Structure to design on (623 residues):
């Protein structure tokens, strides 16, 4: 077994005094598509934001490619940040820039590519997410689903080794959603990109996920871990079966 | 971490009826940035056929794919055949998703407009703007009348909050500016008046100008900078987040819901702020007079003789009207916001600028009206 790309150990996090998740540990292998599941409000986005170093956890460590992001700063933090891309739940595109400029921005800041090369890379990224032809639009001129896809394209701009996607498919039609699945699978297979995805779309989870963890707000911890098909068929936890079989 | 030199390399040699390019190494952003310009130059003039050998490429990400697709586009634009050999199948699958057309900017219909067109467009925008302002005044008037008919529908809790942020919290800056202005004006005018032994008339000058003119004017300008901008930013952000649309579809009129309470609160607070401004100014003046050796009583008497209650009321009427204008234009600019974060910035700027312009215009109108009414 290879060394994991992401290793979370003993992570406790929350807001102020309020603990959202307690003592979370898991690891993600290179090239794996790893999905975080759980009901609305159970702390998936919070876990993601702690993993990418936006919030300091109350305790525990997150190591990305062997480097601990908790408490990292300056040059070390910048190096860790270069190794992953993030798509936020709300898109978070820069409203005053066109789509092309949104994607060119990281390329401009972090690579020495000439201008036409940057634009070529950005155009291909937009093509990958099915947004060819919308380069010159502003984010506010896009539909919600288009904004999501553009945000995925921006997260991929620098071809990072790891991509964190917070609900990439919420609000997309089934065809576009399947297109994103395809994209995830191709990128994982060809470039060996590791994906950490927060998702509720069962169909897509079964299509792409190598492994999932499921969070639970009552126990504030992980209640299941493993390949999705296995959890659906063999889990002895009723909550897990409920989730995978869409029972109320 | 970054390798000292480019991690990819490119070599080329003439081949049968064209050019053969060999790529090797890691085609990532680092590698590609070193060879892009040369590759593009070669592809622009390949002869009849461009053959790219990618046998020795051991990694190829988005930047590398962009390079390969660009080579193909360049070759085809130069009417040459393009052939890509030896690319590892896992990268080939990605490469096959693209075609050279993907690199071309979408056909744009935006031609550079001619001067008359530009002028026309700007004029149309201005007319729209005026139209929107008139419509807003109408909506606002209706909302005010409804509020007067049914005061319980006004959001008094909001109004109290606004009264605090726009009124009470403005107190320190109002008093400070007023005090300094009074001090400076008294001092500056005392010097020339002293030549005629007329320093005592500093009191007349201060009292009249503060109560009738400067008090309302400066208070309103501070209001425009502090609160008009805040209203525009707050309501503008709500517009961008579709909160205003949510209000509309709930059947709540945003003008009634957001604007009326804000306007009523600021109109109630501004006259008081104006009074404090003028009072602080007079205190500043009194300080100067004391330092020139006049007793406080003399200054107070002189002030009382020089202004009437009418002067003060005129100033307060002006102050309320100014605050109405500043606050309404701030809210209107907020509601008119379209687009994202940068348009909120534009609305805020526009709220302050239009607010100050409206204050100046209204002040002129007041001057004429007061003159005609002999007030
Ligand atoms: N900025 C914040 N301050 C305080 N509490 C927060 C904040 N953000 C989230 N929370 C709380 O943390 C808990 C987890 O929120 P989180 O956003 O991580 O949920 P989630 O699992 O991503 O839900 P969803 O699927 O709806 O996106 C919730 O109870 C929420 O109320
Ligand atoms: Mg979330």
């Amino acid at each position: 077994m290879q060394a994991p790309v992401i290793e979370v150990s003993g992570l406790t996090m929350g807001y102020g005094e309020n603990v959202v998740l307690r003592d979370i540990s898991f690891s993600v292998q290179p090239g794996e598509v790893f999905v975080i599941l759980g009901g609305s409000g159970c702390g998936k986005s919070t876990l993601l934001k702690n993993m990418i170093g936006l919030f300091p956890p109350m305790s525990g460590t997150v190591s990305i490619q062997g480097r601990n992001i908790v408490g990292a700063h300056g040059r070390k933090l910048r190096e860790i940040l270069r190794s992953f891309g993030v798509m936020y739940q709300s898109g978070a595109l820069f409203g005053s820039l066109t789509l092309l400029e949104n994607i060119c921005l990281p390329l401009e800041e972090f690579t020495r590519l000439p201008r036409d090369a940057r634009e070529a890379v950005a155009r291909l990224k937009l093509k990958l997410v099915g947004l060819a032809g919308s380069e010159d639009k502003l984010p506010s001129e896009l539909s919600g689903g288009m904004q999501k896809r553009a945000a995925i394209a921006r997260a991929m701009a620098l071809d990072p080794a790891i991509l964190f996607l917070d609900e990439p498919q919420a609000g997309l039609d089934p065809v576009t959603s399947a297109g994103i699945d395809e994209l995830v699978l191709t990128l994982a297979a060809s470039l060996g990109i590791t994906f950490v995805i927060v998702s509720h779309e069962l169909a897509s989870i079964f299509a792409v996920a190598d492994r999932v963890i499921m969070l639970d707000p009552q126990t504030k911890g992980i209640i299941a871990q493993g390949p999705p098909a296995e959890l659906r068929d063999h889990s002895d936890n009723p909550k897990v079966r409920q989730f995978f079989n869409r029972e109320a | 971490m970054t390798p000292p030199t480019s991690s990819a390399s490119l070599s080329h040699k003439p081949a049968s009826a064209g050019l053969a390019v060999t790529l090797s190494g890691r085609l990532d952003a680092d590698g590609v940035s070193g060879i892009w310009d040369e590759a593009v130059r070669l592809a622009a003039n390949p002869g009849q056929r461009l053959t790219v050998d990618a046998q020795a490429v051991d990694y190829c990400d988005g930047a590398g794919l962009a390079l390969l697709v660009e080579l193909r586009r360049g070759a085809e634009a130069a009417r040459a055949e393009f052939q890509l050999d030896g690319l590892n199948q896992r990268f080939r699958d990605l490469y096959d998703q693209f075609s050279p057309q993907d690199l071309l900017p979408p056909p744009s219909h935006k031609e550079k407009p001619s001067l008359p067109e530009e002028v026309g467009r700007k004029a149309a925008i201005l007319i729209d703007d005026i139209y929107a302002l008139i419509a807003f005044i109408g909506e606002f008037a209706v909302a005010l009348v409804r509020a007067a008919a049914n005061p319980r529908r006004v959001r008094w809790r909001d109004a109290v909050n606004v009264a605090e942020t726009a009124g009470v919290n403005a107190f320190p800056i109002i008093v400070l500016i007023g005090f300094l202005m009074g001090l400076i004006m008294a001092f500056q005018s005392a010097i020339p008046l002293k030549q005629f032994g007329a320093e005592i008339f500093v009191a007349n000058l201060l009292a009249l100008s503060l109560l009738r003119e400067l008090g309302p004017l400066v208070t309103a300008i501070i209001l425009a900078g502090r609160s008009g901008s805040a209203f525009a930013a707050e309501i503008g952000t709500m517009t961008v987040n579709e909160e205003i649309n949510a209000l509309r579809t709930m059947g709540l009129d945003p003008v009634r819901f957001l604007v009326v309470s804000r306007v009523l609160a600021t109109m109630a607070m501004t006259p008081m702020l104006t009074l404090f401004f003028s009072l602080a100014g007079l205190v500043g003046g009194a300080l100067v007079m004391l330092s020139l050796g006049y007793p406080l009583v003399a200054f107070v008497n002189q002030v009382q003789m020089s202004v009437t209650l009418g002067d003060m009321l005129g100033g307060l009427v002006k102050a309320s009207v100014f605050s109405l204008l500043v606050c309404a234009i701030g809210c209107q600019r907020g509601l008119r916001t379209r687009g994202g974060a940068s348009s909120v910035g534009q609305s805020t700027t526009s709220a302050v600028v239009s607010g100050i312009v409206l204050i100046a215009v209204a002040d002129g109108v007041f001057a004429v009206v007061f003159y005609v009414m002999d007030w």
The longest strand of chain A covers residues 18-28. The beta strands of chain A are 6-15, 18-28, 33-37, 59-64, 67-68, 84-87, 162-166, 194-198, 211-216, 221-226. Chain A touches chain B through 35 residues (CB under 8 Å). Residues 174-191 of chain A form the longest helix (18 residues).
